Amino acid sequence: MKSLVLLLLVAVTVSSVVSKPLPEDSEAEVHKEFETWKVKYGKSYPSTEEEAKRKEMWLATRKKVMEHNTRAGNGLESYTMAVNHFADLVPFNIYL
Fold this sequence. Notes:
This protein is an all-alpha fold. It has a single domain, classed as Helix Hairpins. Helix content is 64%, strand content 0%. It has helices at residues 2-18, 27-40, 48-73, 91-94. The protein starts with a helix and ends with a helix. The relative contact order is 0.11.
């Protein structure tokens, strides 16, 4: 019985740690980070519409990386990730 209670307590604790939202960055901070990333990897886009699409993909990748690294920081993953030069692509684009 004690083992079951302990297991339940651990499960609830892990669940609460994993489900905590990531801290929100300001729009200006995110924009600056995207611009810095573009310069680092030599990214440019033919139109503002294309840049907006690529920024959305970059944001989705960034969110996945941050969520993964939060789990890694809590011991739930064995490695960390980083945003790289593929961050503005969807998987379909990478393999073309």
